[in-house]
Amino acid sequence: MKRNAVKTVTILCLAFCLSLPAFSPAFGGEYKALEGLKSVKVMFDFRDEKPGSALVHLQLAHDTFKDGALRKVDGKPDFAVVFMGGSVKLLSNKRDGFSSEEKKSLAELDKVISAMAKDGIRLEICMFAANFFGVDPSSVSPEIHRVPNGWISSLGYQAKGYSLIPAY
Question: 10-45 burial, b for 16+ CB within 10 Å, e for fewer?
């Protein structure tokens, strides 16, 4: 009996060690581009106005924030998302004009936005775009900060050393 237990533990340890390469991205991965960095600051210029692809882009931004490789560089990266252009229409809780399939994507988008806000990712909506597209500010979640002009916000982030990632 004792011999079988030792054999089982040995096999489990060997299997674990052999499977580590498959999980290496989860433990940081190999990114030459991250070598020597002391911090990670990113601003997403978010303009995707199609509910399905916007959901995928926002989920990817959130997954990137949580990625172990970035955590090794900087315990908690500094991320901001600035919603500009037609993407502001996706942030309103007034969903007339969207198909039932798009409304499902928008409901998921709302969940991702809440999770991102909880994780400390700054979310901003360009009020110039919101006004242009007729988005009522009171229909936008309070988790999303209102800025008068998303371009000015973008300029400020970039001047502070944030990397710019477009999400169109």
Answer: eeeeeeeeeeeeeeeeeeeeeeeeeeeeeebebbbb
